[in-house]
Amino acid sequence: MNVEEYFDKNKTKLKEVYEILRSTEFGKELSLPPWNVKSYEDFKKLPIIHPKEVSFEKLFIPGNGLWRFKTSGVTGKAKTVYRDIGTIESYPEDMDKMLRNNLTVFLHSKRREGESYYEVHDINHKRMYPNGIFLEYENKKQLLEYVQKGEVLFIVEYPLMAEWICYQLEEALENMPSQSFAKKKVYLELSGEPVTEAQVQNIITRMMKIFQCDVEYSITYGSTETGLIGTYIPTLHGSRIIYEVSPSLFVEEIDGEIILTPFRKRGTILFRYKIGDRGKLFFKENKPFLQDIRRCEGNIYVAGAQVNVVELISYLKNIISYPIAIEFFKREDSIKGVCFLNVVVHTPKGLPHPIKNKLASSIKNFIINS
User: Fold this and answer.
1) How far apart are CA 59 and CA 268, in angstroms?
2) 8 Å CB contact between 164 and 336
3) How distant, in Å, are the alpha carbons of 6, 101, 264 from that of 17?
């Protein structure tokens, strides 16, 4: 498969989304012409939606069964997205039997209301496994209590919180040698910030020792605006992290940047939408995959925070007359389960204290918790 064949396979769905886009307020403002696309080269001439240049309200098509999510996305400003919750159809047969035939605890940290990644899992898992135990922990005490329940454990977490779980349970075992967290099986699904193979293997090795059983894992890649984008399952995809693209959307790679078109006919209609990520699109066994996912230049995303570098540099140049350089340091505290973002401004000579004080209080305005 190549890009043209991938496009041809999805051309009918893309046409449907485009015609719906034309009926939105945004589409009418652009005076979009009827679909007249014969090839992918024609398709690339259609407009790309940049989240900074459009109001999501102008992309809305009413419909039933829509969920409402809040996202700062790549804009740093809260946007409301309407879409379906997303469906987990099934798991592999042996995994499904393990979850269904044993008392299973589905566990994740307590998150903000409307965080789609968790809500998708909670809604679907409760539908698929009504006899499961569904728990959210907010502190170490709850974690230690909850992981002792059930015979099988299904953890859905960000990489940092998975490391925090390991640390807390390792510490508990060290202080109480008679304590046991042994399970029949543990399943771990990671999402959030990009993660390396080495980081994942470190987490898996530690969990296998803690739970005294095999730990199967997967990694998902997605966004609040679009939902699931791709999934990596090592038993299917090999040792290198690559994401098999979801059939619910169409992916493009334009100058190294990822562009998405969800096959959505109601809610917030996104067509050739820039999500602010870079990556490489390739094809394997007639399926699309993404790899080398990272954030685009201009913004830095660290530990749930977004820094608008371009605006920050512009601000600094207005108040500092010297040449400047900026460094960003991410410091993870796996004990507390938090990250810190340090911003260091370098200048060829010392700054007056009034300017230092002004910087100390104003730089935080360019850092947005997302």
Assistant:
1) 5
2) yes
3) 16, 41, 7
Cα dihedral: 301, 302, 306, 308 (round 10):
-70
- CA–CA separation, 327 and 322 (whole Å): 16
Task: Kindly state the tokens that stand for 256.
Answer: 């190294």
What single letter denotes the amino acid at residue 159? P
Give yes or no for residue 334 having a pLDDT over 90.
no
Provide the β-strand partners of residue 325: 346
SS (H, E, C) 94-159: HHHHHHHHCCEEEEEECCCCCCHHHHHHHHHHHHHCCCCEEEEECCHHHHHHHCCCCCEEEEEECH
Position 76 pLDDT exceeds 60: no
Instruction: Taking residues 80-102, report their average pLDDT.
Output: 87
Going by the DSSP 8-state scheme, the letter that residue 335 receives in this structure is T
Nearest to 242 by CA among 229, 255, 252, 254: 229
Type and span of the H or E element at 199? helix 197-211
Cα separation, 341 vs 116, whole angstroms: 25
Write the single-letter amino acid at 200: V
Q: Cα separation of 320 and 221, whole Å?
A: 40
**Residue 171 to residues 131, 136, 311, Cα–Cα distance (Å):** 31, 21, 43
- What stretches of 316-362 adopt beta strand conformation (E)? 325-333, 338-346
pTM for the complete prediction? 0.78
How many Cβ atoms from other residues are within 10 Å of residue 328's Cβ?
A: 12
Least confident of 15-24, 125-134, 139-148, 287-296: 287-296
Provide the 10 A C-beta neighbour count for residue 59: 23
Other residues' Cβ atoms within 10 Å of the Cβ of residue 94: 10
Which has the higher per-residue pLDDT, 4 or 121? 4
Token pair recorded at residue 238: 């090999």
Residue 311 CB coordination number (10 Å): 14
Neighbours of 269 (CB within 10 A): 27
